[in-house]
Amino acid sequence: SPPRRGNQRFVRAIADHNPSDSVELAFKVGDDILFGATDESGWVFGTLGSASGWFPRRLVEEVPLEGSKPL
Q1: Is 59 helix (H, G, I), strand (E, B) or coil?
Q2: Which whole-number Å values give the CA distances from 45 to 18, 30, 32, 56, 69, in the listed order?
Q3: Which of 14, 28, 55, 68 is deepest in the core (most CB within 10 A)?
Q4: Are the C-beta atoms of 19 and 46 separated by less than 8 Å?
Q5: Do residues 12 and 61 lie in contact, with contact meaning Cβ atoms separated by under 8 Å?
Q6: Separation of alpha carbons 43 and 35, rounded Å
Q7: Pick from 53, 66, 60, 54: which is nearest to 8 by CA?
C-alpha cells in the first residue's frame, strides 16, 4: 500500500491523465494525489486539490516516505 504522511497516503502521477468521464480525476505528471481507495479492476479513487475521482493505478507510483533511506 502507498506510504503515509501522517494519516494520509499519497501516490505520484507518472503520466498525465485527461479523463473523458466526470467521475475520473485529471492530473499531470508529478502531481501528488491523496490516496483514497482502490477496487479490484485496478482503479484508484483519489483527491488532488479540490477535485476527487477515479484513475488507473498504472498511472501512479508510491511516494517515498520523506527522510527514509534505503537499507
Answers
A1: helix
A2: 15, 17, 13, 9, 29
A3: 55
A4: no
A5: yes
A6: 11
A7: 66
In this prediction the pTM is 0.80
- 62: region left, alpha or beta (phi > 0 left; psi from -120 to 50 alpha): beta
The length of the chain in residues reads 71
* Per-residue model confidence as pLDDT tens digits over 8-52: 889 999 999 999 899 999 999 999 999 999 999 999 999 999 999
What stretch of H or E contains 70? none
The cell for 17 is 491523465
What is the amino acid identity at position 62? E
- Residue 10 amino acid letter: F
